[in-house]
Write a structure and sequence with these properties.
The protein contains eight helices and ten strands. By secondary structure, it is of the alpha/beta class. The protein has a single domain, classed as TIM Barrel (Alpha-Beta Barrel). The protein has a six-stranded mixed beta sheet with strand order 7-4-3-2-1-10, sandwiched between helices. Strands 5-6 form a two-stranded antiparallel sheet. Bound molecules: zinc ion (2 copies).
Amino acid sequence: MLQLTYDFHIHTCLSPCADDDMTPTNIVMMAALKGLDVIAITDHNTCKNCKASIEIGKKNDILVLPGMELTTSEEVHVICLFADLEDAMRFDTYVYERLIKVKNKENIFGNQIVVDEDEKEIDREEYLLINATTIGFSEVYEVVKAYHGVMIPAHIDKNSNSVISNLGFLPPDSRFSCVELSKLENKECLLDSNPYLSQCRVISDSDAHSLGQINEPIHVLLAKRKSASEVLNALKGLEP
Ligand SMILES: [Zn+2]
Ligand SMILES: [Zn+2]
């Protein structure tokens, strides 16, 4: 088994709340500088900066997973990761059709910039990406599975936009097998009221909106190979 240092929750300049210098190149360079093996690009309700990020990652020996931080109809944030860019982009289309459309106001919410591999701006998303979608939390597992991805309820220990804060608990009939905590040490105090957590792999990511927030190589995932499909397999499986 390989020990891979990871950060699976990073926003690019396409998320309105992230810094404009969170370009794919800057993110990959920072990940390389920090010594991370694998990262995921998880903008709010979009995968449109994943392609450039993956290509830049390949040139710099950083494995980049295409992903998204989905906002459900209950305003719960869920990290959705894919092994394959095409699956991610088909999921992107599915989500975009279900995004509640309100025009972005750049001076209030921030810019939503799509870039290519050369850092060139190729598009600006006109609708506000931090809005909710009409996808219910209980639907997410099946939808993401249909695109061969894995769902990871995001920052479940936070007081807003988390499954526990917004629904009250981890539903006992859930089917996901991995959750994200902003701090791993918060697991113990959540276990009592959320017994489902004992069945889950727990990961911790940076949720970086600026370059300096990207994780140090402190969290490790064991995988058979440094490949997107093996990383996804590791996340789907139980703790070794
Ligand atoms: Zn979030
Ligand atoms: Zn986030």
